[in-house]
């Protein structure tokens, strides 16, 4: 039961945002009456030591009228990490005491890390459990590095807490020995929240609640909170999603201002919307998506042109409706991306846009940005053009039905008019796929899974969701449009958020080569291998019995893709310039790409942005969405596997850690831990380069991709953990490994 409604608050539009979520003065401008930040730093530099705030104001000649502005400027400099205060409250220059500023990231075991604001040049700093007593995950602090932890990482102490994470904390209410407390669902918050008498409201022990803090933690006291919302009981249908929304601080209600803007939007495309657009309603566009999709970002069509092809990719013109600095834009920026949970979506845009005006539904006019491409007979991009248009989709197709028609070489009833266009698209796909191979793009084989649910919202079964060539057909069309968008913005020197997948780190490549060398394999390319070097090796090892092991090791040597204004290319796809253009309904970077393209077409520049901040924000919201989706899926899998405790199952080792093996079950596609203590009477050492655990006495090895038989012995819903013990062991050839 929900006993209170979430209050919506106003957000600043992204053009006013900075790294810390508030407007900052321009460089070199006066922050107070004649006193700049440089003047403050100069006074502190000239001082023999730390200065009290009043003493600093006196040195700078700050009068009573300017005192409040002076204090606000100091606070802004603290948040920016330029100055810190010592325990006596005096002001110091952060760099002079080697202080780093950033966010605290907690660990379930009680310790934590400082993630510095300057991630590129400053490493993470280890914070001991003692230091973490005074802060919570998400707090912003300044830290002084004091040495190294036992693993050689920089270790530090907290100098000052600069900003508290003020979001409510979700957890389960407990009552033990007369003490009421909330155990946070976010295990990165390792401290329980004490709830004094009268602050629990109507909540009962066992309820899932949200609490707001009324007293922050200190070195000697736990945090104290007040229950502000009762979400329900732990096993209620959909509770796992309600928890994830709050646990990961996902915006799930649109602001009143954005809702008001949405209501003012038209219900259909009107005559005024068509001004300045090409009319492409005669082209036979179709959308091809999954069976459960409701928002259709893109539509495609193609025709033969000589020995080559002409391809049109039409993408929903979201930027026509979501204008820069609007309330809708601010909400979209805050979300960054749509979040996909099993059976529920938290959209980036309100439903009127995401499933209505901006969705390329069939048989209605829709506004679109079109990328029209001429592609040669061998898949080369000969020329392209972008323009705003209006289209009329002929059909909403699914991957399954498209692949059935293409593989059977005949249309399904009612699809006769669109089938010839699908055949041309399929021919184009084969050409683009061959060019992809020549280019050297890396193509890993992965298995996606799909959960099927009962009427109570719990998993009925988990099955593999195999990709067919209809999926790949659309993927190649989208890649072509995205790379054209990247080239277009790059050629015109316009700022953009590139999708950057940087070259692998040297140490990862060195470890990979050492691992491959022991197997008689070699990754070409010297210290900086090319994508083609990876793809060549993948083709060479595809028929080997240990292919799964080798592919996993290759994949883990690569970096994570991010958004950045600095174009470093996309290593995995082997593109020099690549952006996201084709999904503006669900990704904010795509919306920015559309605005950039429109600006170039109009002879303007879409600027006024801090593109580095935008890149970090969009990368962070993408990771947040992935973590939240994974958390919900893990909870559902744990709930499902509670009924299978005691069973014995076959599985594959998909992770090797110093404390044990992660095993994925063949039948259920569920991961669990086989702890090192369950591997037999021996001391096992972790070999990170060879991805194995090896026994000191028996020399028995457990490696990545090994086959094992395990028994499920424990499921912990709260920690999302599944524990196995070893039942029996079978490697790829049925024999145990011995070093």
Question: How would you portray this structure in words?
Answer:
The protein is α+β, with helices and mostly antiparallel strands and 739 residues long. The protein folds into 5 domains: 15-93, Arc Repressor Mutant, subunit A (Orthogonal Bundle), CATH 1.10.10; 98-163, Nucleic acid-binding proteins (OB fold (Dihydrolipoamide Acetyltransferase, E2P), Beta Barrel); 169-234, Beta Barrel (OB fold (Dihydrolipoamide Acetyltransferase, E2P)); 256-490, no CATH class; 645-738, Nucleic acid-binding proteins (OB fold (Dihydrolipoamide Acetyltransferase, E2P), Beta Barrel). It has 16 helices and 34 strands. The protein has a 5-stranded antiparallel beta sheet. Strands 10-9-8-11-12 form a 5-stranded antiparallel beta sheet, with helices on one face. The radius of gyration is 28 Å and the shape is globular. Residues 1-33 and 731-736 have low confidence and may be disordered.
């Amino acid at each position: 039961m929900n006993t209170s409604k979430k209050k919506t608050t106003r957000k600043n539009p992204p053009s006013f945002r900075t790294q810390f979520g508030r407007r900052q003065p321009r460089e070199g401008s006066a922050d107070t009456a004649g006193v700049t930040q440089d003047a403050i730093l100069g006074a502190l530099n000239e001082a023999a030591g730390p200065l009290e705030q009043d003493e600093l104001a006196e040195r700078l000649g700050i009068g009573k009228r300017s005192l409040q502005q002076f204090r606000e400027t100091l606070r802004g400099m603290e948040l920016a990490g330029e100055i810190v205060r010592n325990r006596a409250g005096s002001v110091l220059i952060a760099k002079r005491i080697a202080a780093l500023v950033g966010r605290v990231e907690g660990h379930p075991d009680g310790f934590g890390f400082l993630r510095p604001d300057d991630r590129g040049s400053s490493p993470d700093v280890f914070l001991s459990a003692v230091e973490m007593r005074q802060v919570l995950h998400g707090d912003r602090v300044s830290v002084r590095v004091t040495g190294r932890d036992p693993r050689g990482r920089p270790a530090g102490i907290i100098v000052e807490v600069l900003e508290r994470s003020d979001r409510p904390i979700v957890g389960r209410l407990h009552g033990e020995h007369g003490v009421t407390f909330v155990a946070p669902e976010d295990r990165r918050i390792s401290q329980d929240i004490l709830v004094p008498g009268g602050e629990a409201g109507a909540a009962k022990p066992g309820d899932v609640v949200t609490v707001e803090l009324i007293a922050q933690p200190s070195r000697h006291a736990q945090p104290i909170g007040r229950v502000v919302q009762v979400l329900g009981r732990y096993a209620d249908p959909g509770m796992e999603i309600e928890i994830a929304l709050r646990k990961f601080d996902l915006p799930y209600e649109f602001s009143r201002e954005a809702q008001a803007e949405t209501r003012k939007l038209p219900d259909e495309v009107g005559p005024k919307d068509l001004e300045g657009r090409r009319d492409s309603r005669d082209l036979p566009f179709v959308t091809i998506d999954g069976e459960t999709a409701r928002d259709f970002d893109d539509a495609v069509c193609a025709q033969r042109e000589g020995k080559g092809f002409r391809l049109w990719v039409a993408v929903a013109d979201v930027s026509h409706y979501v204008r820069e600095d609007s309330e809708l834009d601010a909400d979209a920026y805050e979300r960054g991306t749509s979040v996909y949970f099993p059976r529920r979506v938290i959209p980036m845009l309100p439903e009127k846009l995401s499933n209505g005006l901006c969705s390329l539904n069939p048989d209605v006019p829709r506004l679109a940005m079109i990328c029209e491409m001429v592609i040669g007979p061998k898949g080369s991009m000969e020329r392209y053009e972008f323009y705003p248009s209006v289209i009329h989709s002929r059909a909403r197709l699914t991957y399954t039905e498209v692949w059935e028609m293409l593989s059977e070489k005949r249309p399904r009833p009612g699809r006769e008019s669109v089938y010839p266009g699908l055949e041309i698209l399929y021919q184009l796909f084969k050409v683009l796929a061959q060019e992809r191979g020549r280019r050297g793009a890396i193509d890993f084989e992965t298995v996606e899974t799909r959960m099927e649910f009962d009427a109570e919202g719990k998993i009925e079964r988990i099955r593999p969701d195999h990709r067919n060539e209809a999926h790949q057909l659309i993927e190649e069309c989208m890649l072509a449009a995205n790379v054209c968008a990247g080239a277009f913005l790059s050629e015109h020197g316009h700022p953009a958020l590139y999708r950057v997948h940087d070259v692998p780190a040297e140490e990862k490549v060195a470890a990979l080569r050492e691992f491959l060398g022991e197997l008689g394999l070699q990754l070409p390319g010297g210290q900086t291998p090319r994508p083609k070097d990876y793809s060549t090796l993948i083709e060479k090892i595809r028929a080997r019995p240990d292919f799964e092991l080798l592919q996993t090791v290759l994949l883990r040597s690569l970096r994570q893709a991010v958004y950045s204004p600095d174009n470093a290319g996309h290593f995995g796809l082997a593109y020099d310039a690549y952006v996201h253009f084709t999904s503006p309904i669900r990704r904010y970077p795509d919306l920015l790409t559309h605005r950039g393209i429109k600006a170039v077409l109009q002879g303007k520049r879409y600027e006024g942005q801090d593109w580095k901040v935008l890149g970090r924000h969009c990368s962070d919201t993408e990771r947040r969405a992935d973590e939240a989706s994974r958390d919900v899926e893990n909870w559902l899998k744990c709930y499902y596997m509670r009924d299978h405790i005691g069973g014995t199952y076959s599985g594959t080792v998909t992770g090797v850690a110093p404390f044990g093996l992660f095993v994925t079950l063949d039948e259920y596609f569920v991961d669990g831990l086989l702890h090192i203590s369950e591997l037999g009477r021996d001391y096992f050492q972790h070999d990170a380069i060879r991805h194995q655990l090896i026994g000191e006495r028996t020399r028995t090895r457990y490696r990545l991709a090994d086959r094992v038989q395990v028994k499920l012995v424990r499921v912990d819903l709260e920690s999302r953990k599944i524990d196995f013990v070893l039942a029996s062991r079978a490697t790829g050839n049925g024999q145990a490994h011995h070093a």
